[in-house]
Amino acid sequence: MKTLKDLESFRLGKGQMNAVTGGYNCYIVWADDWSTDQIVVNEPGNESDALKAEDKLQESYGDTGYVICN
Known about the structure:
Elements: H1 14-21, E1 24-30, E2 36-43, H2 47-61, E3 65-69
Antiparallel strand pairs: 1-2, 1-3
């Protein structure tokens, strides 16, 4: 039977954990058929950066879709 000691090699360091947990993604929900596409993937930043990106992308896409960043 495996124990937690056996899984020690899979442990992430502090720098690796920060890389995994940071950032945001943005999606667009298209107005014509309500399908979605991911338009930003793992962009470094925090919630404030995500909201700014959401506003800027929404300006670009206009009425063609609704942008969501989180």
